[in-house]
Amino acid sequence: MTGVRLREVRKSFGSAEVIRGVSLDVPKGSFGVFVGPSGCGKSTLLRMIAGLEDTTGGTIEIGGRDVTNVEPAKRGVAMVFQSYALYPHLSVFENMAFSLRLARAKSAEVQRKVGETAEILRLGDHLKKKPSELSGGQRQRVAIGRAIVREPEVFLFDEPLSNLDAELRVQMRLELTRLHRQIGATMIYVTHDQVEAMTLADQIFVLRGGLLQQAGRPLHLYDDPANRFVGGFIGSPA
Ligand code: ADP
Ligand code: MG
User: What is this model's ipTM?
Assistant: First the structure.
């Protein structure tokens, strides 16, 4: 079963076509990673899946439903931004409760969902703190928590660890793997970092210049790159 399916997806900004006919399937419940050099179109593609950019052509399906023209809030996706997207004046609890409050969830439900999420992310002792009182890793976990409470079908991550130092990045990668095992939702993670892609992905999707170069399991891409670019990028000669 497919979690996210793209068929011949295209995007132009003015006369520049930056996504040039991308078709791919991210299996339901899997961890997919879009990897490629800066400017290849990773963020644009992710934003199109989220519905934050419209498509110039092609179709996007989530859980078997065509969402190409569906508004973002009704796609069943949640995007995780870098941790600086937290509300500085709100507590950790209220940051995570924010979308539930917007949706007018009952107070008991807010308590329960935020409580469960804090448990998963080991933030239970920090719920009353402001983001400024947290470490970088804790802030990043709050940013992830804000997505979890919405119980999306698909989580979308756009280079969420790029602001963190190297040691913390390694730790957060392990956390993300653990989280994925625990929640079992489809996740799509965008990065320009090959190591991050190799360690996180069930499936890697290599992009270059708005085109999909190859899709496959990390070791498959490593052992059998489709072309020189993939070989050079993933780290074994073609
Ligand atoms: P990546 O995330 O892989 O670094 P992006 O998806 O951000 O790449 O960008 C892909 C290309 O699209 C780049 O050439 C970028 O300059 C261009 N682009 C992205 N967003 C816009 C926009 N809103 N208007 C015009 N060009 C854009
Ligand atoms: Mg980007």
Answer: 0.98
